[in-house]
Amino acid sequence: MDSNAIEKKWSGRWAEKAAFQPDPDPGREKRYITAAFPYPNSPPHIGHGRTYTTADIYARYLRLKGYNVLFPMAFHVTGTPILAMAKHIAAKDPDVLGIFDRIYGIPPEKAATLSEPRTLVAYFSDEIEKAMKEIGYSIDWRRKFYSYDAKFNLFIQWQFRKLKELGYLIKGEYPIAWCPADKNAVSAHDTRGDVDPEVEDVTVIKFPVPGSPLSLVATTYRPETLYGVTNIWVNPKAKYVKARYKGETIILAEKAAQVLDLQLGLEITGEIPAADILKMRPVNPLTKESVPVYEASFVSPEVGTGIVMSVPAHAPLDYLALRDIGKGNIPMPQVVSLKGYGPAPARELVEKMGVKSQDDPEAEKATKEIYTKEAHEGVMVVGKYKGQKAIEAKEKIAEDLKAMGKAFHIVTIANGPVYCRCGAHVVVNILKDQWFIDYGVPEWKAKAKECLERMRIIPADTRGEYLYTIDWFKTRPCTRAAGLGTKFPFDETKMIEALSDSTIYMAFYTVSHLLHDIQASEMDEAFFDAVFLGKGPRAKDKKLARLRDSFLYWYPVDSRHSAGDLIRNHLTLYIFNHVGIFDDKKLWPRQIVTNGFVLMDGTKMSKSMGNILPLRKAIKEYGADVTRFSMVCGADLTSDTDFNKSVAEGVRSRILLISKLVQDSEHKTSKPHGRIERWLLSRLNRKIERAEKMYEELAIRELALDIFYDVVSDLQWYAKRSSESNLHDFFHKWVVLIAPFMPHYAEEYWEMLDGKGFVSFQSFPKADHSKIDDSVERGEELIRKVHSDIEKISELIGKKPSKVTIYVAGEWKRELYSLAKANPSFEGLMKAAAAKKMDMKAVQSVAKQIMKNVHSITVPLSQKDELDALKDAEGFLAKEYSCKVEVLPEEQAKHDKAKSSLPDKPAIVIE
RNA sequence: GCAGGGGUAGCGAAGUGGUCAAACGCGUCAGGUUCAGGGCCUGAUCGGUUAGUCCGUUCAAGAGUUCAAAUCUCUUCCCCUGCACCA
Q1: Residues of chain A with pLDDT under 50
Q2: Which of A 618-677 have CB under 7 A of nucleic chain B?
Q3: Which nucleotide is nearest to A635 (CA to C1')?
Q4: What is the structure's pLDDT at A189?
Q5: Predicted complex ipTM exceeds 0.90
Q6: From the Cβ of A557, is strand B under 7 Å away?
Q7: Residue A804 to residue A794: CA distance in whole angstroms
Q8: What does the alpha-carbon distance between residue A106 and residue A110 come to, in Å, rounded to a whole number?
Q9: Nearest nucleotide from residue A786 CA, by C1' atom
């Protein structure tokens, strides 16, 4: 059977019959499944497939359970990455073109035509759609849209108007990493070396200079150490300036002033030579002490304010700089006590490490060590917060100083210096009218938590992560200056940011295919209010009733699927926005399912490694069903799964084996079921019973092991044990069970087995309890054990058996097991046996065996059951070892060894 | 640092108190096959031992609870992920 041909055949038929294009059907219960929509800036690879495959398996399972199931798909094109990709292509970026060529097989000529964002989107979304069709996702493609479609834009703008009405949209200041040359926000992919600029608040403390209106402003990460300041540092090689800031005149480095101007609004009034500063005696605002100003080379005019306060007891650099100018012996007031150190931990460590000077690279190591240690273990020994932890005092002191006007804070690049690709030094800018969504509103948070509580979360142990994220969300900027998507309705020069426009789009799917005959101009506030909220002036509009009905039929989303990394943003935003926009709790999300990633041959797929397997290539090479299988069955839902050739090959060869067996059992026969068929069906019905629960819990891996791998090994055993194949009944049930995993083969098998209609729409098999037969299964286990024992023994004695005799333990030995259960001690058992007047000599040796596992005794099969099983296998065993095989009860023994037979462990005599 | 998740045989990965020397898959080794290779089949794969057995030592390290621990408790070490404007 050629898998690609089968796939084509069945995907063709599904499409032809519009099998997966459901419409509201009030007579049937619905299930609505969505997965995070793809971002088409490159072709799909197998890593993209896991979430959708999981969702599709689930959707297909629910269909078998009789639900009317909707599984739609669309494309997310919002934001800058598509623009960036188009730009790279336009610039003929060799890296990008090389990856397309080598990995995805897109020749440079073809790639060159994709320099327009919309062309690029069209091409890659088409690739994704094709791949998704080829792999057999049961998606309703009628509902497809792009997040830059005009009608979708109107929907999103409506959403934002609602958020504003609710008071969730606010305007404020926001610090961002900024390139002063490009006059643009900077993120990781805009910087040299792809450094992600981290912004960080830093405290600046004012040291007023007596007798003048001036203040020196010192930057510090450790305001609590202000008690221990001995002096101020400036760099004599740097230029310093005076600047007006909020009615005061402050002194700081010129470079610092330029950088900070953006956020502080400084007016530079003149230069001031470092030599003049060195003569000043500024006042510590906390201790009111006058301190000298000294020079130090470690002070960088670009970091902070270019002025640093010196706390030699706790800052290695400060101590080193003092020592460098011959003042290493001045008194160093202690601020923080640190276990294992004396009153000046910085000096102690510096001496211990033998750091040479402030320019010694070791100085940084010492600094890091002291800072982290003191932050976590340090306790204040002076001041208002004496006795408190340094880390707590730090915040409080900074707040106190700010409240008194003796300090302020600035925002800097924590991991600086970072450079823009244009070469400019990245600084921090404060955006004055940035729009935010305020996820900090307490009622909103409370609703989000309520929703979470009502929701089913799979895997269950990720629930805490959602809760954490809900708590952690504060205000979140929701617009950007550039990118594709939707214009922000209250400032059309801005675009709605990419995570903010994809929070309730699942509602849009319910009507997206019904909008053809509705003009965009008609889709106003009242339109969306009517369709999605059922209120407003058009709520009774008959024309909109169909849309409203469709929405109400499908909503809420019964299961949302995504990779686990989206819990921290998208999935939590999804919860927030649903509970925010939709008052009716019946419309709130019901379930979220998250999964891990796909590894390629054990390592993370990456462009630089070149180990990316394009999805369409995988499908072509291994077939759709094998690819589906290999993507999701290798690991638990949460953990990463490995896609590799040998796993895929293993799946394929198993499918081939099954195909062969199905071919042999195409038609129903009237042949009766023998013991081995009964065994197989017993196993199958047990699996069916378990499978339903596993499907409900999306225990994909367990399912795969149980209803696929395990079934294959059952079938292999069956093939050995049976003389002729009689599997029609078995497959008729099993094929439906496995169909969600391998829909194409399942359809093909179903057809071969004379099934009617699509297997995709059959009923999930019911476990037939009358077919579950414990003794048959245990009997078969026994046969397997005996089979392998014969193998072992004949190998050990180094000869092929010419005759095998199997002695089955007598009934009295079995009775002993029951007695042992009631009397779980050696003496107890012996007494009980004596009371039954058993042959105590024989009992003793059996009892010894039993006592080994007295706490976990299982009652063995009866002698008759064991005999029946083994006699049934006589022919099989004889064939296996090409010799005569005889099964006898122990009582008919012709050999001493028979005595050592035990329940579940017949004696075997090989001659 | 904070939060979350982990450390099990050569590898991946099950296993949450007894039936565990530990599923399953891969790899490796041996044998078989109308056998180039590959595939397929059978067996082995902690050490020792044996007519199918039994014994010893294991589940990051250490301590404890228990008749019984990979599984429960405590301590330590190590690893991974996230920490915001990035889709």
Answers
A1: none
A2: 634-636, 638-640, 642, 646-647, 649-650, 653, 657
A3: B13
A4: 63
A5: no
A6: no
A7: 10
A8: 6
A9: B52
